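request received
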Amino acid sequence: MAGRVVTPDSHAFPTRRYDLVKEFVTALVVMALLVVVFAAAVGSPDEKAITMKSWAANAPFDVVATATSELAGTSTTAGYGPPYNRASDGQALGPITLQKWFGVTHPVNAATDLVINPVSTLSDSATQAAVAQWKQASADQQSTWANNYANALGKVSDGDPAKVATGDYGPVPVIAAGELTLAKGGSLDGLLTTSSTFYGTDPTNALLLLADGSYMANIANAENLSGDQWGMMNESGHYPGQPWLWLYTFWYQIPPFSTSDNADVQVMALMMLLSLVFAFVPWIPGLNKIPHGLKLYRLVWRNWYAQHPEAVTATQTTPTRV
Amino acid sequence: MSAAEEQAGENRSWSSAVVRWVSGLVPRGQWLPDRQPGYVASWIYVFGVSALASLVLVIASGLVLTVGGVTWWHTSSLGHFVNSLHLWSVEFFFATMVIHLWGKFVMASWRGGRGLTWLTGAFSFFVSIGTAFTGYLIQTNFDSQWISTQAKDGLNSTGVGSQFNVMDFGQMVLYHVALLPLGVLVMVGLHVVLVRRRGVVPPFGAEPPAEAGVEAVSGSSEGGVK
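response:
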């Protein structure tokens, strides 16, 4: 086997006393003390969840604008694609359209599920008439009304519906106002989460509506939680968050990912590749030689090497000993 | 049936096969040895056991949180403190695990047939990231709202979101307290067994005294793995 140098069996080396149980118990006590000290001194963040009521109270015009965008089909959810709808194919990695291939598994009709269905529970005659008018109109007519109203809201500096000029909006202003009424009254959360089941454990629709608005994103921006603020590894307040995601969020900060419409799937694919390389580095020629080239192992075993100079010589003179 | 035939039958039984398999996983006396090779003397070795200790604290604090329920910590100062213990044990778990990981990298600890040991360590890290991530999703506060609505895009873009809905609170709770922790424990368990099976990797260039000067002994080529 000339030229092929192998790593000896560790059990063949001289040993010294080493109490593994004592080492573990000591580590447990030390780590427990550290955890208790940090928990007591620093604590943990707990910023209250946004409710539809708090959204309506703090940014009522945003609720109206968001409801209108759902009706117009211009919200993020309305045009998202799978797994919510087929309004688009979603993101693609070249010819690979995984998002489309996996299909619609959580169907969401943004206008119907996030606005019309909840608003139709309001019993006042004006809202009932508006919902009926909406349902009887063609899709084109609905889109025209909603887009007209969305554009008109956009022309008002603060988005106040009361300041919108008159126009061809059909029932949209009444329906959007109905959404705001439900939010203010505190019933919109429940209508979006528990309308079809007693045990509401899936707030997906409520979160989609919330994410379609600007209110939550504005709060997140102010707390450096957005994607372009390395937000993936941050959490609210001055807490460490998830620093182990630094590499994942790093890619979002640089081109081509920072300017790509397919950044999510591109970064996912890159991280998957890097993770596989990391996991299989022992079998990848060249990469598995890096530690020998770095020679940082000499710091780890510096005491042992000081007592075994012949081993240092072996690492320098044997080319295959990598 | 003769005694020899009976003995042969016992040796072929499923039970004795399992016993042989379990007892053969680790060399005799190496499950919990009171001695280690002389080269196992560095601060870097502390971080592996510290990660294990932190994992115990993560599980313990998580179990206390399960007693109170998912929203208990919002309304109870004790609950909030336990949540803080859980958070910081997770932070220290990752910190010590990452230092352990880089330590093992610079030592090329996959040498000598230890590739699977490295692989199970890497997957312990990956599954731990998933477990921690679902923890952030089930906090039932602003962070979980924001993180779930942002993370959905990455997962949806790969098709994973079709089955793994980060905004489905009920699904994420079960992933966080059952499926993923089980994955972590399995991977860490395998990792520890493999560490005990192969022992701690020797330094580059090291030869055991009886075989010093002998070129090839056992194990696999240094740098790579068989």
